[in-house]
Amino acid sequence: MCYSRERINRTLKPILASLAHNDSKSWDIKLVQIAFALRTAPSESTDHSPAFLMFGRHPRQPLDLLLRSPPVSDNLPSSDELSIYRKRLLDDLLPAYKSARELLDISHQTQARNYNDHRRSSHFNPGDIVWVTSLSGIAMGKWRGSKMQPRREGPYKIITKLSSVTYELEHLTSHRRLSPIHVERLTPYYSFTTIHSIN
Protein backbone atom coordinates (compact mmCIF):
# COMPACT_ATOMS: atom_id res chain seq x y z
CA MET A 1 0.00 0.00 0.00
CA CYS A 2 2.80 2.38 0.89
CA TYR A 3 4.63 1.51 -2.34
CA SER A 4 1.44 2.18 -4.30
CA ARG A 5 1.12 5.66 -2.78
CA GLU A 6 4.76 6.43 -3.57
CA ARG A 7 4.27 5.31 -7.17
CA ILE A 8 1.18 7.52 -7.54
CA ASN A 9 3.07 10.47 -6.06
CA ARG A 10 5.90 9.94 -8.56
CA THR A 11 3.31 10.10 -11.34
CA LEU A 12 1.49 13.12 -9.93
CA LYS A 13 4.47 15.39 -9.31
CA PRO A 14 5.66 15.90 -12.93
CA ILE A 15 2.08 16.28 -14.18
CA LEU A 16 1.32 18.89 -11.52
CA ALA A 17 4.54 20.70 -12.35
CA SER A 18 3.67 20.87 -16.06
CA LEU A 19 0.08 22.05 -15.50
CA ALA A 20 0.81 24.60 -12.79
CA HIS A 21 4.11 26.00 -14.07
CA ASN A 22 2.54 29.41 -14.84
CA ASP A 23 0.68 29.59 -11.53
CA SER A 24 2.26 27.55 -8.76
CA LYS A 25 -0.61 28.35 -6.37
CA SER A 26 -3.26 26.68 -8.53
CA TRP A 27 -1.93 23.13 -8.24
CA ASP A 28 -4.83 21.99 -6.02
CA ILE A 29 -7.34 23.06 -8.69
CA LYS A 30 -5.62 20.79 -11.21
CA LEU A 31 -5.93 17.67 -9.04
CA VAL A 32 -9.48 16.89 -10.23
CA GLN A 33 -8.38 16.97 -13.88
CA ILE A 34 -5.31 14.86 -13.21
CA ALA A 35 -7.28 12.31 -11.17
CA PHE A 36 -9.82 11.95 -14.00
CA ALA A 37 -7.01 11.46 -16.54
CA LEU A 38 -5.31 8.79 -14.42
CA ARG A 39 -8.57 6.95 -13.72
CA THR A 40 -9.54 6.82 -17.40
CA ALA A 41 -6.11 5.93 -18.80
CA PRO A 42 -5.50 2.23 -19.57
CA SER A 43 -2.96 0.67 -17.24
CA GLU A 44 0.14 -0.98 -18.70
CA SER A 45 -0.29 -3.83 -16.23
CA THR A 46 -4.01 -4.59 -16.73
CA ASP A 47 -4.75 -3.16 -20.22
CA HIS A 48 -7.88 -1.54 -18.71
CA SER A 49 -8.55 1.78 -17.06
CA PRO A 50 -9.25 1.83 -13.30
CA ALA A 51 -12.65 3.40 -14.01
CA PHE A 52 -13.69 0.55 -16.30
CA LEU A 53 -12.63 -2.12 -13.80
CA MET A 54 -14.58 -0.31 -11.09
CA PHE A 55 -17.80 0.62 -12.92
CA GLY A 56 -17.86 -1.63 -15.98
CA ARG A 57 -18.00 1.28 -18.40
CA HIS A 58 -15.86 4.15 -19.61
CA PRO A 59 -16.69 7.59 -18.16
CA ARG A 60 -17.80 10.27 -20.56
CA GLN A 61 -14.90 12.26 -21.92
CA PRO A 62 -14.97 15.99 -22.85
CA LEU A 63 -15.42 14.99 -26.49
CA ASP A 64 -18.56 13.05 -25.55
CA LEU A 65 -20.16 16.29 -24.38
CA LEU A 66 -20.19 17.50 -27.98
CA LEU A 67 -22.32 14.54 -29.01
CA ARG A 68 -26.06 14.29 -28.54
CA SER A 69 -26.98 12.81 -25.18
CA PRO A 70 -29.21 9.72 -25.14
CA PRO A 71 -32.85 10.33 -24.26
CA VAL A 72 -33.56 10.45 -20.54
CA SER A 73 -36.70 8.90 -19.12
CA ASP A 74 -38.31 9.73 -15.79
CA ASN A 75 -39.69 6.21 -15.52
CA LEU A 76 -37.88 3.75 -13.31
CA PRO A 77 -36.32 0.77 -15.14
CA SER A 78 -38.30 -2.44 -15.04
CA SER A 79 -36.99 -5.61 -13.42
CA ASP A 80 -36.35 -7.10 -16.87
CA GLU A 81 -34.31 -4.06 -17.89
CA LEU A 82 -32.29 -4.25 -14.68
CA SER A 83 -31.69 -7.95 -15.27
CA ILE A 84 -30.47 -7.29 -18.80
CA TYR A 85 -28.22 -4.48 -17.59
CA ARG A 86 -26.77 -6.67 -14.81
CA LYS A 87 -26.08 -9.49 -17.26
CA ARG A 88 -24.40 -7.12 -19.73
CA LEU A 89 -22.32 -5.63 -16.92
CA LEU A 90 -21.16 -9.08 -15.78
CA ASP A 91 -20.42 -10.10 -19.37
CA ASP A 92 -18.13 -7.05 -19.66
CA LEU A 93 -16.50 -7.17 -16.23
CA LEU A 94 -15.80 -10.85 -15.61
CA PRO A 95 -13.55 -11.32 -18.68
CA ALA A 96 -11.90 -7.99 -17.88
CA TYR A 97 -11.17 -9.12 -14.31
CA LYS A 98 -9.75 -12.41 -15.55
CA SER A 99 -7.47 -10.80 -18.13
CA ALA A 100 -6.43 -8.11 -15.61
CA ARG A 101 -5.35 -10.79 -13.10
CA GLU A 102 -3.41 -12.67 -15.76
CA LEU A 103 -1.69 -9.50 -17.00
CA LEU A 104 -0.89 -8.46 -13.42
CA ASP A 105 0.73 -11.84 -12.78
CA ILE A 106 2.83 -11.45 -15.94
CA SER A 107 3.74 -7.89 -14.95
CA HIS A 108 4.80 -8.97 -11.44
CA GLN A 109 6.94 -11.77 -12.87
CA THR A 110 8.58 -9.35 -15.32
CA GLN A 111 9.27 -6.82 -12.56
CA ALA A 112 10.73 -9.51 -10.31
CA ARG A 113 12.93 -10.81 -13.13
CA ASN A 114 14.19 -7.29 -13.94
CA TYR A 115 14.91 -6.66 -10.25
CA ASN A 116 16.82 -9.92 -9.89
CA ASP A 117 18.82 -9.23 -13.07
CA HIS A 118 20.03 -5.90 -11.70
CA ARG A 119 20.36 -6.97 -8.08
CA ARG A 120 23.88 -6.94 -6.69
CA SER A 121 24.71 -10.35 -5.32
CA SER A 122 26.86 -9.91 -2.20
CA HIS A 123 28.35 -12.39 0.22
CA PHE A 124 30.56 -11.68 3.23
CA ASN A 125 32.41 -13.82 5.73
CA PRO A 126 33.29 -13.21 9.39
CA GLY A 127 36.38 -11.01 9.54
CA ASP A 128 35.60 -9.09 6.33
CA ILE A 129 35.81 -5.28 6.55
CA VAL A 130 32.84 -3.36 5.14
CA TRP A 131 31.17 0.02 4.87
CA VAL A 132 27.56 0.38 6.05
CA THR A 133 25.18 2.59 4.07
CA SER A 134 23.79 5.38 6.25
CA LEU A 135 19.99 5.52 6.51
CA SER A 136 19.81 9.07 7.90
CA GLY A 137 19.87 10.70 4.46
CA ILE A 138 17.74 8.19 2.56
CA ALA A 139 14.07 8.73 1.76
CA MET A 140 11.95 6.58 -0.62
CA GLY A 141 15.03 4.66 -1.72
CA LYS A 142 16.99 7.75 -2.85
CA TRP A 143 19.64 9.89 -1.19
CA ARG A 144 18.03 13.05 0.24
CA GLY A 145 20.81 14.17 2.56
CA SER A 146 23.39 16.91 2.07
CA LYS A 147 25.84 16.49 -0.80
CA MET A 148 28.71 16.68 1.68
CA GLN A 149 27.12 14.23 4.14
CA PRO A 150 28.86 10.82 4.20
CA ARG A 151 26.71 8.15 2.63
CA ARG A 152 28.52 5.28 4.36
CA GLU A 153 29.71 4.63 7.89
CA GLY A 154 32.61 2.55 9.11
CA PRO A 155 34.71 0.68 8.61
CA TYR A 156 33.07 -2.25 10.36
CA LYS A 157 34.20 -5.85 10.76
CA ILE A 158 31.84 -8.77 10.15
CA ILE A 159 31.50 -10.58 13.48
CA THR A 160 28.75 -13.11 12.85
CA LYS A 161 26.62 -14.17 9.91
CA LEU A 162 23.13 -14.26 11.42
CA SER A 163 21.30 -15.49 8.32
CA SER A 164 21.75 -15.66 4.57
CA VAL A 165 21.18 -11.89 4.30
CA THR A 166 21.93 -10.40 7.76
CA TYR A 167 25.13 -9.87 9.74
CA GLU A 168 26.39 -8.63 13.09
CA LEU A 169 29.09 -5.94 12.77
CA GLU A 170 31.62 -4.23 15.04
CA HIS A 171 33.15 -0.80 14.39
CA LEU A 172 36.95 -1.03 14.13
CA THR A 173 37.55 2.09 16.23
CA SER A 174 34.66 2.54 18.66
CA HIS A 175 33.86 -1.21 18.83
CA ARG A 176 30.17 -0.31 18.61
CA ARG A 177 28.14 -3.26 17.42
CA LEU A 178 25.31 -3.25 14.88
CA SER A 179 22.87 -6.11 14.51
CA PRO A 180 21.12 -7.23 12.39
CA ILE A 181 22.34 -5.42 9.26
CA HIS A 182 20.99 -6.44 5.84
CA VAL A 183 23.50 -7.37 3.15
CA GLU A 184 22.08 -4.70 0.80
CA ARG A 185 23.51 -2.02 3.13
CA LEU A 186 27.04 -3.45 3.04
CA THR A 187 29.88 -2.51 0.70
CA PRO A 188 33.39 -4.03 0.73
CA TYR A 189 35.98 -1.81 2.39
CA TYR A 190 39.21 -1.25 0.50
CA SER A 191 42.20 0.38 2.17
CA PHE A 192 45.17 1.76 0.24
CA THR A 193 47.03 -1.42 1.08
CA THR A 194 44.19 -3.57 -0.31
CA ILE A 195 43.97 -1.50 -3.50
CA HIS A 196 47.73 -1.73 -3.99
CA SER A 197 47.66 -5.54 -3.58
CA ILE A 198 44.76 -5.83 -6.06
CA ASN A 199 46.60 -3.78 -8.66
From TrEMBL:
It comes from the Eukaryota. Residues 127-189 form the Tf2-1-like SH3-like domain. GO terms for molecular function: nucleic acid binding. It holds the Pfam family SH3_Tf2-1. PANTHER family: INTEGRASE CATALYTIC DOMAIN-CONTAINING PROTEIN (PTHR37984:SF15), PROTEIN CBG26694 (PTHR37984). This is Tf2-1-like SH3-like domain-containing protein. It comes from Adineta steineri.
